[in-house]
Amino acid sequence: MAIRTIRIYGDDLLRKKSRVVDDINQRILLLIKDMKETMYNSKGIGLAAPQVGILKRIVVIDIGEGIIALINPEIVEMQGSQIASEGCLSIPGMQKSVDRPNNVKVKALNESGEEIVIDGEGLLARAICHEIDHLDGVLFIDKAIESEEE
């Protein structure tokens, strides 16, 4: 396992759309392990593969309830609304308010290639949406609801 370099805002790769993972092989599993280690080392609660320079649809999340790795995640249901401050490991030192769904249902593959469905609420829903946005080249500042001078 290794701690990978996190790409910082301004890096064009963060604006690209990630590709679907077709085969969960040893390289993908190693990437996921590295992403977990990198996220914990950076004291984040989520990390998407593009943030470490890999355009694959993979995210890892841990809001304090244990690590979740999602391969090819897809939001299938969203409900409610919550506005809260967000930050991002790729945009150090910046916090902005973002409106996210309060509940999401996400379908993905786990590290064994099995389909899983996760119902996220509150912070978990926010983290899932934030990380999946990264897979589509979207950053939280694109969805910020406060003005620049706040």
Walk me through what this model shows.
With 150 residues, this protein is α+β, with helices and mostly antiparallel strands. It has a single domain (12-142), classed as Peptide deformylase (Peptide Deformylase, Alpha-Beta Complex), CATH 3.90.45.10. The chain contains two helices and seven strands, in the order H-E-E-E-E-E-E-E-H. It has helices at residues 26-41, 123-135; strands at residues 46-48, 58-61, 68-79, 82-88, 91-100, 103-109, 115-121. The strands form two sheets. It has a five-stranded antiparallel β-sheet, with helices on both faces. A hairpin with a 2-residue loop joins strand 4 and strand 5 (91-100). The longest helix is centred in the first third of the chain and has 16 residues, at 26-41.
Give a short synopsis of this structure.
It is built from 2 helices and 7 strands; from the N terminus they run αβββββββα. With 150 residues, the chain is α+β, with helices and mostly antiparallel strands.
What percentage of residues falls in helices of 4 or more residues?
Answer: 10-25%
Q: Strand order, main sheet: write it out.
A: 1-2-3-6-7
Main β sheet profile: 5 strands, antiparallel
Q: What would CATH call the homologous superfamily?
A: Peptide deformylase
Sheet-strand content, in percent, reads 25-35%
Number of helices: 2
Tell me what the CATH architecture is: Alpha-Beta Complex
Category by helix and strand content: alpha+beta
Low-confidence segments: none
Tell me the Rg in angstroms: 14 Å
- Please state the average pLDDT score: 96
- How does the overall form come out from the CA principal axes? globular
User: What's the domain count?
Assistant: 1
Q: SSE order, as H and E?
A: HEEEEEEEH
CATH topology: Peptide Deformylase
Gap between N and C termini: 40 Å
CATH C-level name: Alpha Beta
